[in-house]
Design goal:
By secondary structure, this protein is of the alpha+beta class. The chain has a single domain, classed as Nucleoside Triphosphate Pyrophosphohydrolase. Helix content is 20%, strand content 37%. It has three helices and seven strands; from the N terminus they run ββββαβββαα.
Amino acid sequence: MAERHKRTQRSVAVVIRSPGSSDRVLAVLRPSDDPELPDIWGLPAATLRPGESWKPAARRAGLEKLGVVLAELREIHRGSAERSGRTLEMRVYEARGPRGTPEVPQPHPGVTQYREWKWADPREFRAGARAGSLCCRLFLEWADR
């Protein structure tokens, strides 16, 4: 029997270090009505739009989700996970020197908006990884190297 092809969703997540402590990372709280990961703390992330490449999507995540300008992006890890009906491919970028102060939610309809943000110890992403958050899992894999 022929296997049905799952669609692929490409997403990016961004690691933003605290200006006051390189040990702390910006974490965002997903909304309560999120269909897959409600009330989970994770990294800011965005799904690529048709024709969009990885780095521009990461920059867009900073603007549309946090209201900050992300510069000096470098890819630090990548991976994938099977979701119901699709394969999620993700790349994680680290941003140096973001401009602006994060604020959530932002006035951009049509994209997931976060409820809160905080500077978090990387260990705080373990709960998200256990709940199935790919960005949390990939960040922890990279951080634990």
